[in-house]
Design brief:
The chain is built from ten helices and twelve strands. It is of the alpha/beta class and 280 residues long. The protein has a single domain, classed as Rossmann fold. The strands form three sheets. An eight-stranded mixed sheet has the order 1-2-4-3-5-6-11-12, with helices on both faces. The longest helix has 17 residues.
Amino acid sequence: MKQIVSYSILIAFGLLLLTACNTQKASIKGPEGNITYKITLPKGFDTATDHCPMVILMHGIFSSKDFTPMPQIAKGLAKAGIGSVRFDFNGHGKSDGRKQDMTIEKEIADAHAVWDYVSSLPYASHIGLLGHSQGGVVASMTAGRLSDEGKTVSGLVLLAPGTVIKEACQGGKFFNARFDPNDPPEYIRCLGFYKLGREYLVSTQQLDIYGTSAAYRGPVLLQHGDHDGIVPLWCSERYLPTYGTNATLQIIEGENHTITRHRSKVIANTVAFFRKVFGL
């Protein structure tokens, strides 16, 4: 749990790495208000004449588009000729809303709004999704929902997908906060200051994470550190029967949940996967 705090320490370093890329920031209208985002494109990319595949990057709970590993992944993709859009979910970073009001369904709605925006970009040739921790849950469920709508997700990368949130809410223990799962309070405080509201605590117990995700039948790369002290490995392993032969699980030896020990390997795996699915 202490690893979550390391996000704020690493943000400045992560932002410095983006100087070699073409990064633009703005906001779009989402279901809960403005969604702030940053587009990172390959160096020298001309949006008027060039085309490239895009990856939508989804951060984890209590995190942000500017916290590791999102800026570093964006840079790695850009070096390989792949653009990306990373954004803050409602109640996180600089997007509108309160964390206390956040739910998985609201985050899926945010992701869908960003998908619609990226789909409208004239230079986006294909679109993939990537999610870390709770963002992995959202990415997998969003891919399933989009597939049900007949939309093509070219590839999906899940980094330590935090499906354990369902069991945590069912068991009445989320990080260091305890509560009655049958009658949660208005909100709980996680890590001393992050508020999670009753709607999140109740609705997460009912999520059909793997069932919803199963509608997506494209290529999937799962990466999970064997030293992850927050999200257990079984969260990734349970995706394997969901996706069948379309999925590959890479266990990163010595890696933690925040992806700070072997980040370059995780990024290299991610880039190689997307280069393959995009045909680069």
